[in-house]
């Protein structure tokens, strides 16, 4: 049956070539001389694959087999599934499941029990409104102290004013925003309240599809692309009554902070760039351009910009949030999560977007506890050597059992496993892009172009070996995770790699500030943010959120505002950008 499914030419070759039996010293020379007339031994190719152990006879055999057998199949598969870029269709059936314990799947219907913000007063100016939390803004709306349309106008004004300086916004969705805000006000006027996101403006990283608006993926190769699909996460937010005001910067093809319109800046120190491909969501949230935003992380793209820009962010358990309609780097690593002003806001957003996406094979209904109801005094929380000592002290004062901790594992190649997994998967999704030489137009040639060219020669065997190494790492982390959660540096690359390979959640929280390096003036108001991460096993997002909420209940680092209007005397904006941000109308179609 094997031969029947192959092209006839391949069948003839395979049958004839194997009929003489195993190659050995007696017949190798005969085959070698015969093959030399048709092929030259490509030794450098075997060296690139670390396969130089084959003798010349076997190398020629492999080359002929690749030409007659492999390449027709490769080309057939490309024609079948690789004519479009972005990985939006035909996902791999090799599905990663991050769960550690066998659980019976069930539909998650219980919503979190949100705290009521009593005594919320209407601020006197728009800036104070802009820096309120999602839950506080929700109380203003619910009390009818402000309308969603009025709130939307405030954030649209800030987007237009500050985004050219921060280079954090790709498209302002003004017409859609007012349409959704008006609908939110009408629903509320009828006495129906959809929850804490009802009428709240927000932004989406521009790898998330919204009909009638460009979804650029941050790349000049795709800057005019319109994907007429409602991404799952957008559908969930729309059903929660949230109002989309902007498509925010993604680094080009979700790699770092460089995009076709510039490079996104850190509002706390605009001489710095935001890092990470969720650059726009982090920078815009930090600067009060949106109350919250949705970013994505494959390896570090939420945690790094959140750390740099000083916002509270959640990278959820892998599979917690559906990814239909979102550009894919790696089906087994990609995650969507909220960037907000507080951990309580992250909980509110997660509650709205979590759950099984029927078109995302990796998504699932995760039975999370309520982060607002967790008894943290029953938790044992470890702290690593690089943990923020203030966080440790605050949680200890709150009754948490704090213990020294090290997450031990023997796998020493987590960073290499991440690279093989991410780069090969990304190349599968952008195969046509590379083959048509569009990578020559990429905004930063030392990023995806270099990595994906290298990925072209990673063998399937070595990719699978990397996945086996990943499985070993997960098992070791599971066995050594002897606490309910642990605290450590959110920007440590090893933790970022291990956390993403395992699929564990982390919440990034601001914990303070320090002076910038080489400050132009002692009076500068620019600062470097200090953050830490709280990590937990998969499916324990409620634990990290509960701990972060407890910490933020008695601190105010997360309430500070970056100096985007006044960076201090004897200081100035370095190399101020001048590009304008397009305000798009709904496409007439």
UniProtKB/TrEMBL annotation:
Coiled coil: none annotated. It comes from Solanum stoloniferum. Residues 559-589 are annotated as: Disordered. Pfam families: Amidase (PF01425). It comes from the Eukaryota. The lineage of its organism: Eukaryota, Viridiplantae, Streptophyta, Embryophyta, Tracheophyta. This is Amidase domain-containing protein. InterPro entries: Amidase, Amidase_dom, AS_sf. Residues 150-415 form the Amidase domain.
């Amino acid at each position: 049956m094997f031969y029947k499914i192959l092209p006839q030419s391949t069948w003839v070759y395979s049958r004839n070539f194997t009929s003489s039996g195993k190659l050995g010293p007696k017949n190798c020379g005969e085959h070698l001389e015969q093959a030399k007339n048709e092929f030259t031994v490509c030794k450098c190719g075997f060296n690139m694959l670390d396969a130089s152990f084959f003798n010349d006879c076997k190398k020629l055999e492999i080359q002929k087999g690749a030409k007659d057998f492999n390449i027709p199949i490769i080309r057939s598969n490309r024609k079948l599934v690789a004519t479009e870029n972005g990985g939006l269709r035909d996902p791999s059936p090799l599905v990663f499941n991050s769960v550690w314990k066998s659980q019976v799947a069930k539909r998650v219907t219980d919503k979190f029990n949100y705290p009521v913000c009593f005594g919320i007063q209407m601020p006197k100016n728009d800036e104070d409104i802009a820096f309120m939390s999602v839950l506080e803004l929700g109380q203003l709306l619910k009390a009818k102290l402000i309308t969603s349309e009025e709130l939307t106008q405030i954030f649209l004004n800030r987007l237009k004013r500050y985004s050219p300086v921060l280079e954090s916004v790709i498209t302002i969705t003004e017409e859609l925003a007012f349409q959704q805000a008006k609908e939110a006000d009408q629903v509320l006027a009828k006495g129906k309240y959809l929850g804490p996101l009802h009428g709240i403006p927000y932004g989406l990283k521009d790898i998330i599809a919204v009909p009638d608006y460009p979804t650029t993926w941050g790349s000049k190769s795709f800057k005019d692309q319109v994907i007429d699909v409602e991404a799952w996460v957008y559908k969930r937010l729309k059903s929660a009554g949230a109002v989309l005001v902007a498509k925010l910067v993604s680094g080009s093809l979700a790699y770092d902070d460089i995009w076709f319109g510039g490079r996104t800046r850190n509002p706390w120190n605009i001489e710095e760039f935001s890092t990470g491909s969720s650059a726009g969501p982090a920078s815009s949230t930090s600067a009060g351009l949106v109350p919250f935003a949705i970013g994505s992380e494959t390896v570090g793209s939420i945690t790094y910009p959140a750390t740099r820009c000083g916002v509270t962010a959640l990278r959820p358990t892998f599979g917690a949030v559906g990814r239909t309609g979102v550009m894919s780097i790696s089906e087994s690593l990609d995650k969507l999560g909220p960037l907000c002003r507080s951990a309580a806001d992250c909980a509110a957003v997660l509650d709205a977007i979590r759950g099984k996406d029927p078109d995302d094979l990796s998504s699932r209904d995760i039975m999370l506890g309520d982060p607002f109801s967790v008894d943290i005094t029953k938790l044992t929380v470890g702290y690593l050597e690089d943990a923020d000592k203030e966080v440790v002290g605050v949680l200890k004062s709150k009754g948490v059992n704090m213990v020294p901790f090290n997450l031990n594992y023997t796998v020493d190649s987590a960073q290499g496993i991440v690279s093989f997994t991410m780069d090969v998967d990304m190349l599968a999704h952008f195969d046509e892009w590379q083959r048509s030489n569009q990578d020559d137009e990429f905004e930063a040639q030392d990023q995806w172009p270099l990595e994906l060219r290298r990925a072209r020669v990673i063998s399937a065997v070595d990719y699978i070996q990397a996945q086996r190494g990943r499985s070993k790492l997960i098992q070791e982390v599971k066995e050594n995770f002897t606490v309910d959660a642990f605290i450590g540096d959110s920007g440590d690359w090893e933790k970022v790699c291990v956390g993403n390979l395992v699929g564990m959640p982390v919440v990034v929280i601001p914990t303070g500030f320090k002076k910038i390096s080489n400050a132009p003036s002692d009076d500068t108001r620019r600062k470097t943010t200090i953050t830490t991460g709280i990590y937990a096993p998969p499916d324990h997002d409620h634990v990290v959120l509960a701990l972060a909420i407890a910490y933020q209940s008695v601190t105010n680092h997360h309430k500070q505002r970056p100096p985007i209007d006044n960076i201090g005397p004897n200081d100035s904006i370095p190399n101020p950008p001048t590009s304008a941000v397009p305000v798009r109308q709904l496409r007439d179609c």
